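Priority: low. Protein: Helix-turn-helix transcriptional regulator. Input follows.
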Amino acid sequence: MASNVNPTVRRRRLGQELRRLREVRGMTAEEVAERLLVSQSKISRLENGRRSISQRDVRDLCGVYEVEDQRIVESLMQMAKDSRQQGWWHAFGDIPYSVYIGLETDAESLRVYEPQIITGLLQTRAYAEAIVQGGSPESSEQDNDKRVEVRLRRQSRITADRDPLRLWVVLDEASLHRVVGSRQVMREQLEHVMELSQLPHITVQVLPFEVGAHAGINGQYSILEFADAADSSVVYIEGVTSDLYLEKPHDVQKYTVMYEHLRAQSLNVEASRQRVERLAKEYAR
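Result:
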């Protein structure tokens, strides 16, 4: 989906502009909330793009910020209207990580550290089915099927002929040894990883057991970067009941440095392919 119609990105850009207008006026989110008789959390969610924003919200905020140029007001209201459009993922119903999908759909590059499983964009259908079922044992078969289809649809970003997502993945060796589904499923999955890693825009490295303690010891995270300079990088940390999005420059910088350490501690690209290939052959026995 093009960035100019991506509702997630629209909300994010609109929120950034509303935050800028508030800061120009020298107002805190709490002061704005008091003026509009709403909660401070609503103002924060509008500014970070995590909440749908109406044209009325924009009009009221522009009134508080004393925006006199009607062209600016109309432009922001149009952005609010565009941000309420639905992305392709809405056709699948309520997806808990829909904000992330919107960001991933528009990202230019993605760096992922995955300690437990093969990351979603590299998963085969059989592996994805086993992961979803195992991770959501109480969900209905219909809901699990929907999650699998969304995951496979997301993979079109790395297989696109034009402007594919640049993907760099560091896989902990544990994810290669964890038997998901069956040994045959694992063999096919690792062969799939090797095939995708041959693409010029995809890099896969393995963080070997022998490294011991490492920079990613605290768990999985992803760093999304965007082509448009107006869109700041985002660190995404997936949770069980809620997800965390970090956009402050010092937070992004900290995770970026951690990722550079992970890359340095991992096997190089060729040695990583050899490690994956060796394990795939072992699963074939």
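The mean pLDDT is 89. The radius of gyration is 21 Å.
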